[in-house]
């Protein structure tokens, strides 16, 4: 039985250097000769460039592979992080959809395939992208990023399966000794994962790096620079024959990986289908057990095959008290973190009335309000959810009095707090700081939970 699942993905982005197209074709030809499926995350402008250059040969070779989306213009300023920093969560989701939808539509139209995954350009991540991607039907976030981490394992965040900070991320470097070093690294990861009864290895490249010694955006978009289209410069090229040699070297590396027992290459869609979290309705007894396990520390729970985020639990507790079907529902985190009024003691009926209101929306999806109004008092969603759990576990009635519990959203610890992103990616302005994105990434850990494989 296959135990090691390898995802091989290519950020297909250089829409300036012509030789990057030859590298893309060479990689596709090499993969197709081995019947290995790759994952090609394509920039909108790159797809349009292939269309303008009538590269039907490349588009035909792409057909057996999985397509992902990689934004409309990649490094053109303002990048995703730069423009998203200026917006709240709901407005930022609308802005992402407005700026990036054109590229997705063009990738779909030109390749004839729908995108199954998304990954950010470089380090240019933003929590506001998730509702838009989910609305577009993109279920998987596949890339390398460490703003949200969960023990180096796959996780759910923002309603998407995230394969961004897993233990098995690697690559064979395109250097003289790259093959030998890549084999040693693969063997190390293989042995480690086999001891853990299997897992994922994520291998990533850019087609352009097989043709070039530097990156196209480093030439045209470095440190906030926006080179006009009529002044774009290609990336520096490798010497004659190097591109072909490195593509052949990658082929040899892939051959080696497949010589190991229990290894298979999969797509992000196949990884999604392997995820086994239960999504059916729970019994009332299950919700009571979940409530009993919730104290003043509100966090995700893995229970009887269910993986439930804090917002899933909030939805279940509300549905239990409102007499609705007990199906977990993802609700996005609030726009702001506010303090609750303190020393609040009210009837349970007042709390039930408070949770009966219409929730705000992010695009088409529910979002938690910054606070609920309970008998005239402001109560934040964390405190309210912890109090709901107490009401359910104690089996209180409408007329019973309850004191609001002061809670804490524990999954926030899985969001990094470093707001200085300028040095993390060369196209960023070197002094770029993103305190708003960091704050919002913490608030959206309401949606964080482990993936179950």
Plain-language structure description:
Helices cover 38% and strands 15% of the residues. With 453 residues, it is an alpha/beta fold. It folds into two domains: 4-274, Glycoside hydrolase/deacetylase (TIM Barrel); 284-414, no CATH class. Strands 1, 2, 3, 8, 9 and 10 form a six-stranded parallel β-sheet that branches. Helix 12 packs across helix 13. It is globular, with a radius of gyration of 24 Å.
Which short descriptors sum up this protein?
TIM Barrel; six-stranded parallel sheet; 38% helix; 2 domains; NodB homology domain-containing protein; 453 residues; five-stranded mixed sheet; alpha/beta; single chain; 16 helices; 21 strands
Profile the largest sheet: 6 strands, parallel
- What is the count of β-strands? 21
As for the CATH topology of the largest domain, it is TIM Barrel
**What is the residue-averaged pLDDT?**
97
CATH homologous superfamily identity of the largest domain: Glycoside hydrolase/deacetylase
Q: What oligomeric state best describes the polypeptide chains here?
A: single chain
Taken from the alpha-carbon principal axes, the silhouette is globular
